[in-house]
Amino acid sequence: MKRMMTLAALAVGSGVGAQTAMAQQIAVSGSIGTTGGSIEAQTQITPIIQLRGGYNYFEYGVDDTYDDIAYDGDLDLTTWGAFVDFRPFANSFIVSAGAYFGDKGLKLAATPTQNVEIGNQTFTPSQVGTLNAEASLEDTAPFLGIGWDTTFQGSGPGMGFKFIVGAMFTGSPDVSMTATGGTLSNDANFQNQLAIEEQNLQDDINDYEIYPVVQAGLTWSF
C-alpha cells in the first residue's frame, strides 16, 4: 500500500510538473489575411486551451459609389486582438473566441464635377463643394472562428503553421456626413438635404455588420 501511495504521489507530481512546463511554453507568429498583417504571441495553458494576442495593421484605399455618388476613401481596420483558442480534440484543430479592439472605420470623400442629388434635391458642384463621410465601427468587435494551429503540437520548440477562418462582429456603422468648400455649406435647406443624404448612406451600409476573417501564417515556439 505504501508503495502504491508513493507511485500515485509521483504520478500527481509529474502531472503538475507537466502542466507547469506547458504553461511556460510561448510562441510568436506572423500572418497575413483579411485583417492585414498580424504579429501575435501565444501561450498554452493546458493541452486544450491556449491564449493568444497581437496587433493587426490594415489600411486599404477604396473607391465606391453610394446613393449614386462616387467616393474615394480609406478603410482602417488596424486593431489589437485577444483570443482564447480551444483544442476540443487535443490536436491541431482549434475553436477560437475573442475580440478585436481599437478604432475601426471607413472615411470617404467626394468632390462632384457635375450636378448631383443630395437628399431630395439637385445641387451644382460649386454649391456642394466636397462631401466628407465617416462610418465608425464599434471599438470592440467580438470574434468567433475555427482553424488549424500546429503550435505546441510537436515534441519541442520549433516552427508551426496556423490557419484561421471566422467572423468579426463589427455592428452597424455609425455614419456622419459634412460638406465643406461649397457656397451652400451654411445654408439651412442644404444642411437638411445633407442630413437626408447621411441617412441614405447609413441605410446603404447598415447590413455590413460582419467582417470575414481569414488568416494564414507561421509560428515559432520556444
What does this protein structure show overall?
With about 220 residues, the protein is an alpha+beta fold. It has one domain (about 20-220): Porin, CATH 2.40.160.170. The chain is about 20% helix and about 55% strand. The protein is built from three helices and 15 strands. It has helices spanning about 1-25, 125-130, 190-205, and strands at about 25-35, 35-45, 50-55, 60-65, 70-75, 80-85, 95-100, 105-110, 115-120, 120-125, 130-135, 140-150, 160-170, 175-180, 210-220. The chain has an eight-stranded antiparallel beta barrel. A five-stranded antiparallel beta sheet has the order 4-5-8-11-14. The chain has a two-stranded antiparallel sheet with strand order 9-10. A hairpin with an 8-residue loop joins strand 12 (about 140-150) and strand 13 (about 160-170). The model is unreliable at about 1-25 (pLDDT under 50).
Notable characteristics:
8-stranded antiparallel barrel, Porin, 3 helices, alpha+beta, 222 residues, 15 strands, elongated, 5-stranded antiparallel beta sheet
